[in-house]
Amino acid sequence: MRACRGESVDHVPVWFMRQAGRSLPEYRALRSTGSILEAIAQPRIAAEVTLQPVRRYGVDAAILFSDIIVPYHALGFGVDVEPGRGPVIEHPFSSAADLARLRDLEDIDIEHVTTTVDLVVEPLPSETPLIGFAGAPFTVASYLVEGAPTREFAVIKTMMHREPELFDQLLNRLVAITVQFLRAQISHGARAVQLFDSWAGSLTRDEYRRFALPATKRVFEGIADMDVPTILFGVGTGELLGPMSESGCGVVGIDWHVDLDEGRRRVGDLPVQGNLDPARCLGGEALAVEAAREVLAKAGSEPGHIFNLGHGVLPSTDPAVLEAVVRVVHDEGKAGVR
């Protein structure tokens, strides 16, 4: 929490995106088979999955076991998550008539999520905050319009440029839903939140400023009164770090394509999070520790650095490797920290 605010810390804090599951044997044993949405819908399972990596790794924060499409699944938009593929939409958003399918989110819709937050917060040590999260409006819109993950973004970009008014109406609905989703998590005990704009890197700087940044700003404005640290993260967003730092977020997450010293220069005075390449954790402990030291060196000794991966934990990652990374960050990340 102090690092999020750019304050002095005793050691560089560390947590991992997608730390709650996938690579952990205890996660696979608990979940067995079935959709991730089925597991998220069961608060006791979701809470246990959230807590597992905190126990194993000794990380400095828990991240809620959830998914960015959870509120839209709760609204009955027709969303599912296909293993190995990601979110798929039965009837993608294509016209103004579909706006009615995106009604306001109500507490009862996400009761399973807030119950999970309650169950996680109670046993967590006071020095280990729970991070809540949501999908940024542009990234969620990409899924809802494209109907599935894409590399081309042809459908969403066509709508942006051909029907900008419809696109703006869509993002207005997504802003309202996202704000409500985050406020609910914070109200139940999440002490920081991260907004995932995973697909923002598909945009030019001009497109980002026109089609993504205004909605992202409104999300952060919508939770500003709750006074919790906020993190904004996207993949392939090295050229967008400047505009991202204007969003109202408190911390900018940086993926592995940009060295942290350069990333810090691009975001100005804001704290940063990142940015070990997840693939560097697949070659064993020695190589991962070497890579972690490289990140610490690039981050420098100024306050305001949260160690993380530059994207999520890969499913084949050996948990022992992440344990070693946490140790080196805690032990060696102390040098020069004020």
Let me know the average pLDDT: 95
Radius of gyration: 19 Å
Coarse structural class: alpha/beta
User: How would the global form be characterised?
Assistant: globular
Largest sheet: 7 strands, parallel
Can you list the strand order of the major beta sheet?
1-4-5-6-7-8-9
* Total of helices: 13
List segments where confidence is low: pLDDT < 50 over at least 5 consecutive residues: none
Estimate the helix proportion, in percent: 40-55%
Give the topology string: H per helix, E per strand: HHHEHEEHEHHHEHEHEHEHEH
How far is it from the N-terminal to the C-terminal residue, by CA?
15 Å
Q: How many β-strand stretches?
A: 9
Strand content: 5-15%
Explain what you see.
The protein has 338 residues and is an alpha/beta fold. 43% of the residues lie in helices and 11% in strands. The protein has a 7-stranded parallel beta sheet. A two-stranded antiparallel ribbon has the order 2-3. Strand 5 (192-196), helix 9 and strand 6 (230-233) form a beta-alpha-beta unit. The longest helix is centred in the middle third of the chain and has 24 residues, at 164-187. It is globular, with a radius of gyration of 19 Å. The mean pLDDT is 95.
Record the SSE blueprint.
Layout: H1 25-31, H2 36-40, H3 43-57, E1 62-63, H4 70-74, E2 79-82, E3 86-89, H5 111-121, E4 130-135, H6 137-146, H7 154-162, H8 164-187, E5 192-196, H9 205-223, E6 230-233, H10 241-244, E7 251-253, H11 260-267, E8 272-276, H12 285-299, E9 305-309, H13 319-332
Parallel strand pairs: 1-4, 4-5, 5-6, 6-7, 7-8, 8-9
Antiparallel strand pairs: 2-3
Helix pairs in contact: 3-5, 6-8, 7-8, 8-9, 12-13
